[in-house]
Amino acid sequence: IGLTLFHFVGEVLGTSTGLIVSNPNFVKKVVFPLEILPAAGVGAAAFHMLISLALVLLSVAIFGHGLHAGVLWLPVILLPLLLLCLGLSWFFSALGVFLRDIGQLMQFIVLAIMFASAVFYSALKIPAQAWVYMRFNPVLLANELARDAVLWQRPLNQTHLLYLYVVGLGACYVGHLAFRRMKPAFADVL
Question: What is the pTM of this model?
């Protein structure tokens, strides 16, 4: 489950920096709402995530303890992650027009997110000194909430869920605002 959610975030971050740059005709020659390009990238990554998630749920149903009502919390957990990725995609796709080399930096950032998001280990194994900082990582919290809902049949931590929604909505708003502010200069730079 953790790897599925991480791959979604990693795919969005990895592809977003080149979305506007790789489609200069949409910027220069056609009147086109450019906000759709990052949203389409997030949609494609979400489709891949849903396929992976279906395979994970099938594996849990067959080889695990079976599926239970906690699985119904998955859309509630995934929505803020989707909003977070949409905002990040808008921001980094706009930034990628001006800073072309950010794509190479994004590979390092995605790798750092993987190790900081408790993909291969439980958040319970994080030392208290590191938890002080890592508890603000929304991908880590989404991983733990999804694991609690699907695998461990634990009640969801409502504080973590509320934090995910605040961060997701905030990132979506700020990312769209930054995209709109940088958009008028796209044609001149390309």
Answer: 0.91
